[in-house]
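User: Second chain of the day. Same drill as before.
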Amino acid sequence: MSIRPFRSAGRLAVAALAVAGLSASTLVPGSGDTGDATTVTTASAAPAPVAAPSVPVPVPQESSSPAGDEAGPDETVLGPAAVEAIGDDLGEVAALNELTDEELTERLQDPTYGVGPDGRLFVAEFLDEEHTADQAEVGGAGGDEPVALAAVVPLDQTFGLSSLPGSRRTIYLDFDGHTLTNTIWNQVQGIPNGRTVPPFSLDGSDAFSAAELEYIQNVWLAVSEDYAPFDVNVTTRAPSTDQLRRSTSDDQTYGARAIITTPRVQADFPSSCPITSTCAGLAYVDVFDTAGPSHARYEGAFVNAAAVGSPLALTTIVSHEVGHNGGLNHAGFTDGVVTRDYYSGTGNWGPIMGTPYSRPLSQWTNHSYPGHTNEAAADLTVLASHGIAPRPDDAGSTIGSSTPSGWTTSRRGLISTPTDQDVWNIGRCDGTITVSATPSAYSTNLDLALTLVTGTSAAPVEGARVDPPSGQSGSGSSMRATGVAATVQRSAGDTQYYVRVAGSPTGPDTGYGNLGPYTLSATCAGFSQQPAGLPRFTDVPPGQSFFGQIEWLAGSGVSTGYDQGNGTTTFQPSAAVLREQMAAFLYRFAGATASSTSCGLLDVPSSSTFAKEICWLKGTSITTGYAVPGGTQFRGAQPVLREQMAAFLYRFAGEPPSSTSCELLDVPPSSTFAKEICWLKSTGITTGYAVPGGTQFRGSQPVLREQMAAFLSRYDDQGLPVAPAP
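Assistant: Same format as last time:
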């Protein structure tokens, strides 16, 4: 969804967040993270900004740390007046923001954009009567809409939600209050140093009610949908400092914090944005991938939850503000007579970087819609240039590279770019087939089109594209896009079928923003035959946890599974990985060719099944074995413990530098494998187990085969190095 600023208003500071999977863990509701000295941002439904206030956004009364050699004006100024205030420093300020003089001047014609003494662009979205009226269409302003929502997970897991846990990019939805120290918000935006931003609330209390927890879960779900096409984890679980802050340009693990707050009466806070009900959101532009001390200084995008009523409206502000952090500008509109800084959209469609509060299909745009006023690069191009890149394609794009799908079971897919087309091999059917593709039920960004294909890769026969007209129903929390799913039916003799799934090419910007996850299902009323190779294992059907990672493990030749002697193979996902199996996995994963079967291990004779793999493991120093009287043992029949697995993978990667402290409750810096476990966590290969008060690693527990598939798949996704030859 997107935030809603309109007309001319204060400028939004955006924080970049992303989504894709769901991991639930438990945090104590209301516990907060007020000990962090970092910048926080919150986003809520973005109202249409009003004209810039005559009094500039207040400069703080105290500066908690030196601002350095600043290039901006003497005080914070919004809109065209900022150009005059910058004066002869225009070129320096433009360069600081990676803009030309002309681009900076053009940006500052929008009265929601501003510049402070630090010289960095920010956006402040103020509320006006027009915005309030628009919000009334979708659930009312000020949180006055009765909230009757369905929880995504049990309420005690509200602060453990993650959309893509393995990603190195993070968008943290911070609902429980945050302390700001030595940040730009203290130095320029007027928040006293060391003060805590109030938590989100519907009833004025700092404790979270059941209704508030359900509301938070629905905001997370909708923001995750907006960022589902990207390799970024949208989470309500408090990340570590290292997961958010980018220390150097070589640091590839970083993110943004969206501070979602409900303003309280606090006399020592500024009387304007971002902590009062006069402002919908505030964010700095192009800071998501900033490296060094500046990342901590500018971290955070503010979202005013009191500005809107429904979770969908609040989502609009959050995604919009994070978009600013990722370098995006407003999506404006003109009809030749009136020009608006924010475009609300048309029909059921609206741009996230506009004000699509009343549009259920809010999307990223390439600014090609009729009446567009922004000639900037397309949204996905800008976001990718600042570290928020599309996720890798999850399915083939031609018949020759099609991905097996099969009958009766559902498959999850993702349209991650405007040109992405997923081609699935359904299998053979002699009878009537029904194929359906359905986007997410809540807050989808994806309008789907289906094409049934028969024949072969050399001579494909394509049917007509099925692309129902889309519309909308409901309002507020019940607002939904209609006509976004697609179904095709056909009756024929024994035929091989494929289906092409893509975003609809229709819409104001020719379907550019039709992105996101979908579910594909196919049935055959008659004799059917699955595609070759699907499923690989009878005990791991599509849709089961870790299905994709296990398929990857087998498809990569790392695991062969267990032959049942009856033409079927099992994987046994819940069985523990034995040490000898671990040796085989890593040997195959590395593409090793070593053939020695003798390596001086007392319990590994040359005739043993995995002698070659174990000797390779020892030769590369990935394992040291167990010292016993008379020599060394490998103990291949014992399960691999999680801490041992961390050590194996750490050595497999070449023993990169690593800290021994990583905020895992059961991994003190003094523990034997602290360095290896902390490295594993820093890479996203493991996410640990969420428990009240934090996260555990549980190093003494055995590694399950399905977990091993996930670990190696994430290792491969990160492009980490493989072990050197012995």
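The chain is about 20% helix and 20% strand.

User: Great, on to the next one.
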